[in-house]
Specification:
- By secondary structure, the chain is of the alpha/beta class.
- 43% of the residues lie in helices and 11% in strands.
- It has three domains: 107 residues, Ribonuclease H-like superfamily/Ribonuclease H (Nucleotidyltransferase, domain 5); 121 residues; 100 residues, no CATH class.
- The strands form two sheets. Strands 3-2-1-4-5 form a five-stranded mixed β-sheet.
- Helix 4 crosses helix 10 and helix 9 packs across helix 10.
- The protein is elongated, with a radius of gyration of 27 Å.
């Protein structure tokens, strides 16, 4: 088999250390030499590993994507003059039996030496910063939603059926009613009269829904949950403000994405962060959809289709759903190119 990289290294990375196999392919009658060493994951030791690989004249480094443990190694090695490839674990699965960290490192070095693997997409540093921010905002937004659900459970325990009448129990009207309940107001008519705007049309239903057994115990828990919701909201606003600064170099691409019906700035932020604002790395729309994990699988044998399950892809692109955002067209659509064998990729906060 043809040797693409005469000097190649394979890294099996874990939380505490990495097994590193340096493979030097032999020429003529010379034997191929594979040397395995262990290096710690601390920054100083990773820098020492970099110097070791440079001294060994390694031209290609292959490492497996293991959680977030690959990042310290990848970021310190990517600017060292040799090719660094982060590969999907599904693509480099070793043969069963006798699996050890040493054998995994050796296997990665062998695959890299013969050019049998391709690197995963690792965005440049500005996009990585933006991606960290958008993913943090998504996580905190989801956690805020969980706090709202916990608050609703407290109200249900107290017999307060506010969520059956108001679509948003932490909206303007809902917050006024909840704060009045926490402050000790127990007259349903007075509480219902705090409704604002269109919700005032439902005052009779609100009066009935706010009749319950809201005690000091429920008031304490409701206050805790409301405080957590407010803290999450402040954090989300701060992250959003930071995103506006970091995304400035990609503003043109973001504005272009926002011209798609149904796509607003929040959705466009996710698309920019996850795709890197560079569509040239995807030859066709189908390649993009496949990378995102939205293309149905193709498993056919003897003319029979066995499975069309989608494979694991980018969970942040898969998890976004179309919603009406301020300033967007009411016509729902998706933000990524379509392919004949793809599902819709929809978007939301």
């Amino acid at each position: 088999m043809e040797v693409v990289h005469v000097r190649c290294a394979g890294l099996d990375v874990s939380k505490r250390d990495a097994k590193v196999c340096v493979r030097v392919a032999g020429a003529g009658r010379r034997k191929t030499v594979e040397t395995v060493t262990t290096w710690g994951s601390m920054t100083s030791q990773v820098l020492a590993l970099r110097e070791h690989l440079i001294a060994e004249q390694v031209t290609c480094v292959v490492m497996e994507a293991t959680g977030d443990f690959w990042k310290p190694f990848y970021y310190l090695l990517e600017d060292s003059g040799f090719e660094v490839m982060l590969v999907n674990a599904r693509h480099v699965k070793n043969l069963p039996g006798r699996k050890t960290d040493v054998s995994d490192a050796t296997w990665l070095a062998q695959l890299g030496a013969h050019g049998l693997v391709r690197g995963s997409f690792v965005p440049p540093e500005p996009i990585r910063h933006l991606r960290d921010l958008t993913r943090a905002r998504t996580a905190i937004t989801r956690e805020r939603g969980r706090e709202v659900q916990r608050l609703e459970k407290v109200l249900e325990d107290a017999g307060i059926k506010l969520s059956s009448v108001a679509s948003d129990i932490v909206g303007v009207s809902g917050r006024l009613m909840l704060q009045a309940l926490i402050d000790g107001q127990d007259d349903p008519a007075v509480l219902a009269d705090l409704a604002r705007r269109r919700l005032r049309l439902k005052i009779p239903a609100l009066t009935e829904a706010l009749t319950g057994r809201f005690t000091d115990h429920h008031a304490f828990l409701a206050g805790v949950h409301l405080d957590l919701i407010d803290r999450h909201t402040v954090a989300i606003d701060e992250i959003t403000a930071r995103i506006e600064v970091v995304i400035e170099p990609f503003q043109g691409f973001r504005d272009l994405i926002c011209t798609i019906p149904g796509i607003g700035h929040l959705t466009a932020d996710v698309i920019v962060a996850e795709t890197g604002a560079d569509m040239t790395r995807f030859p066709t729309a189908g390649h993009l959809a496949s990378w995102a994990g939205t293309t149905p699988g193709l498993n056919e044998s003897a003319g029979k289709v066995k499975s069309t399950r989608t494979r694991p892809g980018n969970p942040y692109l898969q998890g976004v759903r179309t919603r009406q955002e301020p300033g967007t067209s009411p016509t729902p659509s998706h933000g990524l190119p379509r392919h004949p064998r793809t599902h819709r990729i929809t978007t939301s906060r």
